[in-house]
Write a structure and sequence with these properties.
Blueprint (H helix, E strand, L loop, with lengths): L1 E5 L2 H13 L3 E5 L3 H7 L2 E5 L2 H8 L11 E5 L5 E6 L6 H12 L2 E3 L3 H5 L11 E3 L1 H10 L3 E5 L16 E5 L8 E3 L4 E7 L5 H14 L7 E7 L6 H10 L2 E5 L1 H5 L8 H7 L5 H6 L3 E8 L3 E7 L5 E6 L10 H8 L3 E5 H7 L8 E5 L4 H13 L3 E6 L9 H7 L5 E5 L4 H9 E2 L5 E5 L7 H14 L2 E5 L9 H10 L7 E6 L7 E6 L12 E5 L5 E3 L2 E3 L9
Parallel strand pairs: 1-2, 1-3, 3-4, 5-6, 8-9, 9-10, 11-12, 12-13, 16-19, 16-20, 17-18, 17-19, 21-28, 22-23
Antiparallel strand pairs: 4-5, 7-10, 11-15, 14-15, 23-26, 24-25, 24-26, 27-28
Length: about 550
């Protein structure tokens, strides 16, 4: 719950705006600050920072448990992450509050300021001297990254050398700080009536004996028949581990190193602990027994992540926030060199770049998928929308089910150009690429005929270049067989970028020499018109008064 603390009329008005936009909020008077601090997960205080600091000082206990506090000034100019930037979520809340109130977010946490992800902001548990490692990363001191496996994590300026060691491991290792990935699965079998104390002792003893951290346990797996076992349920409730169950027939079909007759007679499978663990990974600890329980431990193979990111038409304000987040959370960028340059300033320290030139789409797709298959967090960059004449199709054609894929939409050229022209796509429309590098011209020509006969507005991508100068005149000639010379035609070159040009003409007067490889051509339907210099295709509805 977010507490909103206000004392002035302006503060109360701003709090009301946030209450209408944010879920689960409660508004307090400044005299109730102590109550708000105790009851809230985070606070937004509409008060001067000095006054807020003095009022909060006696209440602060521990940064890992105190609520994050955001301070908003009387004029609503700034939303300042004052306390609990990472652990309390104040940094993220400051960004959200600033967006809702039209204020400027102020985040002073050092790692955020220089683009390095704070180790305590990851969703994984972290142990050790986190401050020392963060300080080394900030100071440029070499930090050695020691990882058992490759995980899809944000980029870090760490390498293979350095006296300061950051480990990513489920093992009990010697390092300055250790991030605990969710890599272990506990397979558990139990007799009816097993106690939670026995299970705790078995799990703790086994993990300690094999040098494994309980903080890397992701979940517990067992057979369906044990899904209601009180001892197992209580252990999961105490630890926060999820319980996953499997049918006995599935477990019985799994080859295990230590089958037994007893579970076969009891629940229909010769193995519960090992077989259940093996459903999720490879065994690192074979079956271990206590009086009434068995335990096996498996390690999950990390799944890499591939984000296929549409960068939009070029202007930074048309790059979506989701695309920015995907870029900043990816440790490997794959893309055409000029597209990487377009957003290189958004890359966090430690990002690795795999850049190629024009005409290397297939190579980029294979490289991105291969990097993700190794376990990395990969961003595959493309202009416009990643699905429209861009990198999503070639990448998804070769991506297997062993990686996670996220396609991040962007503003495609037809939309960027249409907005500059007016509203040419107001009714049914089509997009056709006139490049015959990958599609035979007869197929392209057939599509142009279909669009012409269907009376659709059409956006021509890749309309003309120095080596392809006849396709656009041919396509326009086909359209002219079905549309009058007065049909509106729009040409937008370098949409939203430097040297942007917008031309509005007609099918009869169109000079194709004004079109280049960075142009998009939009040809109207028979219903399209020009009103006050704006290209419009009516929606075709009769609006009710």
């Amino acid at each position: 719950m977010i507490g909103l603390v206000a004392t002035t009329a302006s503060g109360r008005a701003a709090a009301a705006e946030l209450a209408a936009a944010l879920p689960a909020t409660t508004t307090y008077d400044v005299k109730e600050l102590a109550t708000a601090f105790a009851q809230s997960d985070a606070l937004v205080v509409f008060l001067a920072t000095g006054a807020t600091v003095r009022l909060l000082a006696p209440l602060l206990q521990d940064k890992t448990t105190d609520p994050g506090v955001v301070c908003v000034d009387e004029a609503r100019q700034f939303a300042i992450a004052l306390v609990g930037g990472h652990a309390g979520g104040a940094n993220e809340l400051a960004l959200e509050v600033a967006d809702l109130l039209g204020a400027e977010p102020v985040v002073t946490t050092a790692t955020d300021a220089v683009g390095i992800p704070g180790l305590d902001t990851w969703s994984w548990p972290v142990e050790g001297d986190v401050a020392a490692v963060s300080r080394a990363l900030l100071d440029g001191t070499p930090v050695r990254l020691a990882a058992d496996q490759v995980w899809p994590v944000p980029p870090l300026p760490a390498g293979d050398e350095g006296d300061v060691v950051l480990a990513i491991s489920d093992r009990l290792v010697d390092a300055d700080a250790v991030l605990r990935p969710p890599s272990l699965v506990l397979g558990i079998g139990a007799s009816r009536g097993v106690t939670v104390e026995e299970l705790d002792e078995l799990v703790t003893g086994t993990l300690d004996a094999h040098g494994l951290s309980a903080r890397s346990v992701s979940f517990v797996a067992t057979v369906d028949a044990k899904g209601d076992e009180d001892g197992i349920l209580e252990m999961c409730a105490r630890t926060g581990w999820t319980l996953v169950t499997h049918p006995a027939a599935v477990l019985a079909a799994t080859e295990v190193p230590n089958p037994s007759q007893h579970p076969l007679d009891a629940v229909g499978t010769p193995s519960v602990a090992e077989a259940a663990a093996l459903q999720h990974g490879s065994l690192v600890v074979e079956k271990t027994k206590s009086a009434m329980a068995t335990l096996a431990v498996a390690r999950i193979a990390p799944r890499g992540r591939l984000s296929i990111v549409g960068l939009g038409p070029g202007a930074r304000d048309l790059l979506t926030p989701r695309a920015v987040e995907a870029l900043r959370s990816s440790s490997v960028w794959v893309g055409l060199d000029q597209y990487v340059d377009q957003v290189r300033d958004l890359a966090r320290p430690g990002t690795r770049f795999l850049e190629t030139g024009l005409g290397k789409e297939e190579e980029r797709a294979h490289s991105a998928v291969a990097e993700a298959a190794k376990g990395h967090a990969v961003a595959l960059l493309g202009s416009g929308d990643a699905q429209v004449y861009a990198m999503a199709s070639p990448a998804l054609e070769v991506a297997g089910d062993d990686i996670d894929v996220d396609v991040v939409p962007g503003v495609t050229a037809a939309l960027a150009a249409g907005a500059l022209l007016g509203a040419p796509l107001g009714h049914d429309h089509a997009s056709i690429s006139l490049s015959d590098l990958h599609t035979p011209w007869p197929a392209i020509e057939a599509r142009v005929h279909a669009v012409a006969e269907g009376d659709l507005v059409v956006s021509f991508y890749n309309p003309r270049s120095r080596s392809r100068d006849w396709q656009l005149p041919k396509a326009l000639a086909i359209l002219s067989e079905h549309r009058p010379p007065s049909t509106p035609v729009g040409v937008v070159t370098h949409a939203s970028r430097e040297h942007q040009e917008v031309l509005l003409t007609t099918l009869g007067e169109f000079d194709v020499t004004q079109v280049g490889m960075y142009s998009l051509v939009t040809v109207g339907s028979s219903q399209s018109t020009v009103v006050a210099g704006r290209f419009i295709t009516p929606r075709g509805y009769r609006w009710l008064q």
